[in-house]
Batch of 4 targets.
Target 1
Amino acid sequence: MDVMPLLLLVAGSAAVAAAARRGPVPAPLLLVAVGLAVSYVPGVPDYELDPEVVLPLLLPPLLYTSATDSSYLDLRAQLRPVALLSVGYVLFATVVVGWAAYVIIPGMPLTAALVLGAVVAPPDAVAATAVARRVGLPSRITTVLQGESLLNDATAITAYKVAVAAAVGAGATWAGGIREFLFAAVGGVGIGLVLMAPLHWLRTHLTEPLIQNTLSLLIPFVAYGVAEQLHASGVLAVVVVALYLGHRAWEVDFATRLQEEAVWKMVAFILESAVFALIGLQLPVVLKGLGQHEGAKATWYAVVLFLVVVLARFAWVYPATFLPRLSARVRAREEDPTWRGAMVTSWAGMRGVVSLAIAFSVPAVVHGGRAFPQRNLILFLTFTTVIGTLVLQGLTLPPLIRLLKFPGRDRQAETLAEANAQAQASRAADSRLDDLLSDERNALPPPLADRLRTVLERRRNAVWERLGQTNPVTGESVDDTYRRLSREMISAEREVFVRLRDHRYIDDEMLRALLRRLDLEEAAAYREAG
């Protein structure tokens, strides 16, 4: 197996994503553009998406890291709009896009057109999360979009399986399709519910952070694999497990949490970068299968279907947002939506690598040795839809949000709430320390007891200090000044330790121990000020 193309993909996509952080273009769009350009460089190998790799190996960790970062409580509060988008919209888009393809493309059977509809129906989890993080959407809209992107792949994959079974003549019926959908959904959720408690128990009872984080890396693949083996939805199983583990993460050892956060940030960065680069690199593979003589007509079909995909989301989102308000129960339970929120939700429908992976899994041959109807055209239309939504909607979504002038987050109110929470926690810690020190078994010399109280006081005051004004001389905030002075002090200590090692007063093992202690102090200072 030649690993060089894989290494080049990972290294190149990571470099482009890092460069994007310093520029105005969002990383997903820059990665796709660079992938498109690089795909025609002589000597660059074909990176053909293998659904047997993308779906079971790339999708579970991306879903897992997104779900663990999501709020279970916020998702539960927004369950109705999330369900309307992740299930209702995906099925609606499957039918609308499929019918449009059937009408405009001569000779395409309705079953094959519905396959195309199911393939391009789900907005992509990676694209939605990446854009939401960058533009700073209001929390309610962000929760709805993240919830939709976590669950809609399960709907689309199930709809795709039913449509393919009908297209290849496997005797699929509407009733059978509904049964398969319900079994996949209920089965995926059920398997997630069965697995989540034992996996959490195992995480909390392992004593080594390294072993705990190894388990963390395996969890999404275990949940996905078990569910798929039982013909249930692996996507839903991963999401359920991840939401539960993220909600109970506070029960895990602090060292595990610190390592886990760093590990998953790195994994998500590498996978997201590679995924968007892969989208751009698919162009030669897709065009090779299409053939030059079909290019002009296929381009026309692509434009029409792109417009259908975009307009179908508006046609679903606005009624799904405002019609439920006719119910008094919904009005009493949920805050009023706005037309601006519906506009952003409608426009934030970028498609991504999941659609391409599903498209590449369309069988080349059906029963009787016949070719799958217009498979190459399905691949091309999926590719153009993905690229079109990523480029057009991805580039225009940030300015659209600025144009609509959403109210910004009240940083002062958030800091005040954080300070009040810290004050309550500090009072509880202070009381607990008094109780412990009153027991002679916990006797400490006065300097050490005072140090515990000093650290507690510093934590309590740090948040309140963030409400202060900036330094009139330097223009720095209190946070920045605190971090700068702390780092200067720690840097001075670090230089002494290194000099002592260089003069053989201490060895490298002791140096590493001392530097780790300083690293933890610096991290603590950064967190307290931030």
Note: The two ends are 46 Å apart (CA to CA).
Target 2
Amino acid sequence: MDTTLRQLLAAIGEPLVEVAATPAGLDVALTGLAIVDPDDEPDRYPGQLVLVIGVRGRAATAALRAAARRGAAAVAVKSGGAADVLRAAATEAGTALLLVRPDVRWERLESLARDVLHEGGATGEDGPGDLFSLAQTVALLTRGVVSIEDTASRVLAYSRSDGDAAQVDELRRLSILGRQGPPGYLRTLRDWGVFDRLRAGEDVVHVDEHADLGIRRRLAVGIHAGPRQLGTIWVQEGAEPFAERAPDVLVGAARVAAGHLVRRRSQQAPGGRWERDLVAGLLDGRASPDLVAGTFGLDENVGALVVAFAVRDGDPTSHDLGLAELTEIVSVHAAGHRRAALCAAVESRVYAVLPEVRRTDAALTTMCAEVVTAARRRSGVRAQAGIGSPAPGLAGVPGSRREADRVLDAMGEAQDVAVFGEIRAEVLLTQTLGLLEANPDLRDPGVARLVAYDREHRTDLVISVVAWLDAMGDVRAAAEGLTVHPNTLRYRVRRATAIAGLRLDDPRARLVHHLQLLAAARERA
């Protein structure tokens, strides 16, 4: 899947490049990257991003036009004070123009651009594993400014700061541009044992502000695969103080980043899709538990629980975007809650399989509530979480998933998180009403007559009888809920009984009528 120019800019953007011209818009596909020196022999660059090095300003216009003639979708140059000339040349040639800031090293831009193009964009083929998307998610959840680095302190990805340069200190700016941080500050970190602590485990390290060095407060966590450190996530304090749960978010993010970096090192980035398919297969019972256990290093007999998340509102575009970002947020929080958590998006829902969870407790429901809150903050969409019951082993995951789905189906509009055991009655009622709706031969013809009467005469007999039944025959309570006089409600119940032939004095018949009327009211709504 090709990356678009829009996705590339969303990932690396400022402070590295400025968009100067987009004759074909931002959604042009980028098939790869090429580096061009004007002294090189001309080549073909179909759909590629071309970095023009070794020349800048007006002198770069010939190379820009040549790259455009040979199929380049976008060209990056250093303006050398000739931005207008370069912009005019790019517009005439029909290629996008990116002006590279003068203090940006070409090798830094190349490295970051190749990473984004290789991953398939900020929300590309490998889904939520993309490091730039992960950095942006961590920035949102911690309220900080994030960079993800390898063990050589090379920046692999970073969060966007939305143009607020005041949030970014000198250390972060120099790191992103590919330079070394202030030597005195790095020596101080070594003297304090910060790097040793990052190598030792996944404890979050707090680094105080150093105004004399122009360095703001930071949190850091090592990214580990077993005893081996793969990199570090740094979060610089921005315009706001860190979120209260920032350290917990970092732990989860480091675990997600570890899987991504392992795939990178083994050159198996596309394998992420196979792994997600395997998790999806576990959820619906297609993948054998022993295969899943062997792949992810789990005990097949360990208990597990499934949480289902769904986006509840928004137009189709915002819904799809919200679902992609919800997947990212769930993966971070789930990994923070359980190291071996497995996540996958299946159709319109996101699932977290949490091994070694034997009961539903406050920590689990808090984690789910934080996911809902974070989804609203990041994407502006409403999300809900349904928690299934614990299963004794991985073979029970499909059952826990079905319960989690039923919880989501039965949840009220006002609920953010619900547990199967707490709304069992609502779940069973929803299932029963679904059965009645799916089988017309089970429906009561008398209730059908009542529904038709309401429609023809624009009356509210169905909802009136439902309110009376819900109130267990308490006319005053039901009338108050409907904001009508009790005598009005009594008349409506008598009228409905006559039209539909209801037998409200028979307990079993009353129960059947109640279910049939609820199904009719749900269809009408």
Note: The chain has 21 helices and 17 strands.
Target 3
Amino acid sequence: MHSSQHEAPAGGGRAAHAARLLLDLLAQGGTAEELGRVAEAARAAGATPEELAFIAGATDAARGIHRTLGQHRRREAELEALFDTAGDLAGLRDLDAVLRAIVRRARTLLRADVAYLTLHDPAAGDTYMRVTEGSVSAAFQQLRLNMGDGLGGLVAQTARPYASTDYRTDTRFRHVAAIDTGVAEEGLRGILGVPLRLGTRVIGVLFAADRTVREFTQDAIALLGSLADHAAIAIDGARLLEETRGALVSLGAANQAISRAADTHDRLTDLVLRGGEAGDVARETAAVLGGALVVHDADGSELARTGPAAAAPPPAGVAASRAAGRAVAVDGVWVCAVLAGPELLGSIALSGRAELPDTDRRLFERAGLVTALLLLMRRSVAEAEDRVRGELLDDLLTLAPDAGARQVSSLALRAGRLGVDTTRPHSVLLAHCAPEARSRLATEAARHARALGGLAGPHGGHAVLVVPGTEPGPLAATLAADLGRATGTPVTVGSAGPAAGPRDFPTAYAEATRCLTALHTLGRTGDGAALADLGFVGVLLGDRTDLTGYVERVLGPVIAYDRSRGTELLRTLDAYYQQGGSLTRAKDHLHVHINTVTQRLDRVARLLGKDWNSPARALETQLALRLHHLSRG
């Protein structure tokens, strides 16, 4: 154990001393084994069964905190490594240096025995081994893979990642003698390969491999895929820079143009290293090229502009640039699609420049690559944060009714670290749409939740949001409209709340689920509401419905009129319905003239609206009358 631990005192203080030791170990980064030794030491010191039970519970809690801290440290390390990679790659100009940096970082990030990279050879129609890290076999380092051959050939052919726990015995791939010989000589077993993509083209494959059997997790595949996206952008950037140099030399203006390109490269690289935004890239690019520049995201939302004269990119221009993989001019505006592999991240548009020489066009495309890198980094950070928020959301919605105070306090503490105050009232909302739009819905739900200061994530087959608020119904209606516009498909939102603390979230989630089901049953797809907004349907479905509030919403004006004037409108309305809607039988029941009944019902119509006696309203009114009588005994 660490040197800060002392001999345990005798008597009842052993439990407190053990708790202090556990906290010290957590603070000092102690291992799980060291946490377990605290209970052993207490037992050896003669602790009572009660003290040992307390220490066992404290040890379990400490191990849970230790695991959570370890997960967070691992995610932070991965994000830091990706940031470092982006900075390193952005600062490299030589293609060989870029490729070596990519492979070295892949081996480090995935803790692999070997990492290697193959590039596509358009002339031969295959891929060849370009760079290796950790390899000892000459035959392996000289391999060439035809499209579809082996794991790497299949990745290059399908543009999809593949992983093999043990490649030697994996029958999913087309085994070729030359490849199997090289792999065997290198001693590789577990292999993971992800495509390097530019637009719709696969320019190569990035691999991580172990000399033992290895199960590659989804996190490992996603991590190598993120590195591959950065790598493809950096490779293309280095290629564009080399092409720019060659073109300038052939034009006889090599020195001046290369200096200008290098200066721009350095300035844009500095932006990446300083954590700049899209607006910084736009200003730097406009300063070099002249004209006015505007940056949009994939949805067409404006991210930055350099002046009011900047023109939005024509949709046809974005599509043409994406297909060509280069900047194009459409309607007098230069457009460059911002891509990460085949995925469109956004676009940049340059107006005020009728012509762009090849050198300026490549600088413009370079700005698009740097913008892609910045947007990709921002998304990586957001996705990592969304994973943590999603885990917290799952724990809040599945909190057991008999959960102890310690577990509830732990949830509140985790929420506080994410800026969510669970002591404030929160609304719980479930969003549902067609299956083909659910991925888009999850992204938009997370964006809205962040803007509202809450949490969002998938749960139970729906996108679930937990956001501050005391009026879930209006919030659900607004959210259904906003999410429907963003996804291009009807989005139905059921809501409940407010939840006053962690223990209320599971109940509110169950009520929101019933509300969502009711909306679909009522044919209100694309709408948003709470059970209280569904009238008597909400009363029937709710397990904690505000009955008094329902009566007030339906009969409030009539009750208030009787109370202030001493009239009997409510009694007359009740008699009218009890007598089957007959004015004659109602006047006999009330012992008044029929004109009196008519005048009272006319007053009811003015208070409740002209449609007060329509079938739907009549059903609501009769149910409210019955609940009103029951509530008064």
Note: DSSP finds 22 helices and 16 strands in the chain.
Target 4
Amino acid sequence: MPFWLARDRTIQSESVMTRFDPRFWTVNFPRPMMAAVTTTAADALRVDAVFYTAGDLAGLIWEAEDSHDHSLLRYETARDFRGCRLSFRWRANGVVALDQVNGPVLTIEGRDASGAARAWYVRLWNYANGTPEDATITLDFAALDGGYRLPDEADPVWAGDVDRMFVSLVPPGFVERGSAALPAPVEAWVELSALRCEGAGAVIAIGDVVVPEHGLQIASGYDDSYNLTPERLLRNALLLGYRGRIVHYLGMSHFLRVEASSGGFYVSLAGGVLNVAAAAWQRDFAVRAKALGYEVIWSISYELFDAHCWSDWKQRAWDGTPALTGWDPPSCLLSPASTGAMAYLRAVAVAVIEIALAAGLAPKFQVGEPWWWVLADGRPCLYDASAREALGGAVEIAGVHAVSNAAQRDLLDAAGALLAASTAALVAAVRAVAPAVETHLLVYLPSVLARDAPELKRANVPLGWAWPAFDVLQLEDYDFVTAGDVAGTARAVAVAQARLGYAAAQTHYFAGFVLRSDQRAQWRAIAAAAEAARARGVAATFVWALPQVLRDGFVHFETEEDAVVPFDDVLFPLALGREAEVTPQFSTAIVTSAGGQEMRNASWAEARTRYDVAPGVRSEADIATLLGFFRARMGPARGFRLRDPFDFSSSGASFGASDQLLGEGDGVTVSFALVKHYGDAVRRITRPVAGSVRVAVDGVETTRFTLAAGGRVMLDAAPGVGVAVRAGFLFDVAVRFAEDTLSVTRTTFLAGATTSVPLIEVRE
């Protein structure tokens, strides 16, 4: 699967945009408040926010350097704003007004004319014409002053080297560095319309690359993109070639409404389900996705930001340790036994599906990674108060790696049944408002089907999920992929499909993700895993996730060679015998100089073999078989297997596990391609005979492997550094008919003559 990690735009297509384009503003803020920015017109944006404490402050941000978009789509870094005049209409509600102390200030961060880092604070009211809630503001960056009162406190701005600028938005009663809860949450909005940027520096370049549509689809999440406009996010997805479905994970931290309690803030349904910022963002996202032709799969999980989660909602281990993830700050897993937690999830699911319906989207819903958490030391979190009541809770499982008796297995089975019942109730709640909803279940294979915890599947892959509990089973395995554990993927996929009864065509695959930017090399394995999933025949393959795609510059594209070449996995039906004609050929350009010296350039690394199988036609029955086989293959349109009478084994008539060196271990790789050596030349073997492959690791024959498509050996465990991996096998050659016509007559056959039946090897 071809891909590219693009660091910079060089010769790729560009266009221009006006600086301060509404699509490219962002927001940021401290918890617990929330804010979101959406575009309301080509020249307008809106910020929706909710404030909870006296110290809450949101920033509406413009950055001189685009650090959010894909490298091929970013706007030009332009730090000199002195040639710009920005004007807009300001309207607001729920924030301190323009004319008040702590009213909106434009903070400009950069360097002065001498290169010293500094910031300027430009009070917007000083440049406003109108009322404190509805005014036109004009900012000429060549003649701009900071300071509260002008001209007495004027602080001239030098806008020639700016990093970013942001407008501060605070609630009534704001106290700098305050932490006390406001008497009630304050819902606010700010609109900037008629945005105009004029002057010599008003226009900058922007990437305009359009990657052709390809076979991969994309997943993303609100927690990762809450600060961007939906229009900006979808622009990236569209121009990078992703079409069809988008899996949109609502997240676990930014959509929440919270209420003050006991010195903290906890999840609440007071006033609605989603906070006003998140609701505005999701509505805009849904409408824009629909307009671009996307289908959206809305995803929620059993995970919440720990600081806002009620104590009795959390899964817990035997000693009461909460089920916290490794994120910083941590999230926690909700107990399927908690009445409050599950009712809350059902309310959230209904809310997002109602947004989808309002936008005209076909309802699609994913239950994302529902599971009983297992702590790092193997202790399962089956023992919160609600779970103890539902499951009995008298049986302790000290570690999921050592489940040793029937009582422990019964507990895991009961936990699985409870988990399945909770997901069924979630699906039922969604179906009540959207009867035609398409339901999806996302399962994270490395955790729920770990090799060293075989009994865990009783709790975390319950039989209650078996088809048709969901319409689509979605499988995710990025720990296997990034570790090079191809065998782990193959094993876990097979177990999940067998246990739950979903065919390949009823499954989706999630490839990814790359956690940190210094792990960009993992994209190679991710691209290979996506290709392997498509070869398995899954209905859709998603890249997880869009924020990492943008950060690392991942570009997927397809070439003509990526199209699936039609191939029928059947053997040529006639025995060839020793009379068949076999002709290996190379393509070599030879240039002879005037002095008789030669320069030779080999175009092919391997020989391509031609065959004439006419000598295998020995009877009228053979003629009929040949003609039928030719028609079934549509002449040269479809490939098939051929047993080469002269070269069909790794080592002559007999073969052993140590015949051919496939490679050496590196402690990570488990996948080794079958090859045959001819001196220094190496031939890839893509069509081994089923059941014939024998493998030796470090000189010892092993059966701990599987054979994947394309002639790849997948070991159950990665060999150590320098350990030799060898194999012996029988193999066929992938061939096709060489011509569109086949001429075999009864007359010539009875006369003892044979016409030509040419075949040619297909390079795979």
Note: Residues 130 and 242 are 45 Å apart (CA to CA).
